[in-house]
Write a structure and sequence with these properties.
The protein has about 240 residues and is an all-alpha fold. About 75% of the residues lie in helices and about 0% in strands. The protein starts with a helix and ends with a helix.
Length: about 240
């Protein structure tokens, strides 16, 4: 498992992927700094920051896109080079193979996504409680997305375009307007964790979140279910 983990890290650290995720993750900080430069009193921790920056930009856009870019490629080299067959023939549990891929995705993605939210929140004067809450919620969201998109990358070579449609339509549009969808939405879980952990600093989200216990169960459940589906796919797929 350790060898597969290290190999996956090397495979995923392609130059264009690193540049893309660093660029996307740095956008919130750059925007905050630009606003502060133009108007020192303009970038503050308020309702607009939570809704516009934390929810719409970081949770709704940067977190899923950055995670998808890395996770969808976790099995990419093996599928493209047709070397997955040799990998699954080795005396290694399918569970360990899938786990190595998901963990590698999480290790690469979580720091940049969490830093994106934490640094932006701190720069606008968010309290320590708000900063920590943002970090915890983003970690949970990345874990769920890492599992989903690692499985998707194993199912289809078109995981990126399909993933973008899923993020824009299901996570972005439908989860914003349909309450029921939030029970099956990683964005819904992440926002609910923000409000559930720190209701004072994220009070503005009160009318848009599901119950805190349901969010915890949902986030953990999604991560486990799609991890199970990934290892099941490895066990049953026909590899040329």
């Amino acid at each position: 498992m350790e060898q597969i983990f290290r190999l996956t890290l090397r495979q995923l650290l392609g130059r264009w992927r690193v540049l893309l995720i660093v660029f996307l993750a740095s956008l919130p900080t750059l925007i905050v700094l630009l606003v502060k430069w133009q108007d020192p009193d303009g970038a503050v921790y308020d309702q607009g920051f939570v809704e516009g920056m934390i929810d719409a930009m970081i949770i709704g856009g940067i977190m899923p896109i950055v995670t998808m870019t890395i996770a969808a490629a976790a099995f990419g080299n093996e599928l493209e080079d047709r070397t997955l067959y040799y990998l699954i023939l080795k005396p290694i549990s399918r569970v360990h193979i899938a786990l190595a891929k998901v963990v590698a995705t999480f290790v690469l993605t979580a720091p940049v996504v969490v830093a994106s939210g934490v640094v932006a929140t701190a720069l606008v004067g968010g309290s320590m409680s708000a900063v920590l809450t943002v970090g915890i919620a983003l970690l949970a969201g990345v874990a769920a997305y890492a599992s989903i998109f690692t499985w998707a990358g194993l199912i289809t070579p078109r995981a990126l375009p399909y993933g973008l449609v899923y993020v824009l339509v299901w996570e972005g549009l439908l989860s914003s307007f349909l309450t029921g969808v939030r029970y099956l939405s990683v964005r819904g879980y992440t926002l609910s964790l923000l409000h559930g952990i720190d209701a004072k600093n994220f009070e503005i989200l009160e009318d848009r979140v599901i119950a805190f216990p349901a969010a915890i169960v949902g986030a953990v459940g999604v991560a486990l279910v799609f991890f199970f589906l990934a290892q099941y796919r490895l066990r049953t797929m026909d590899v040329p």
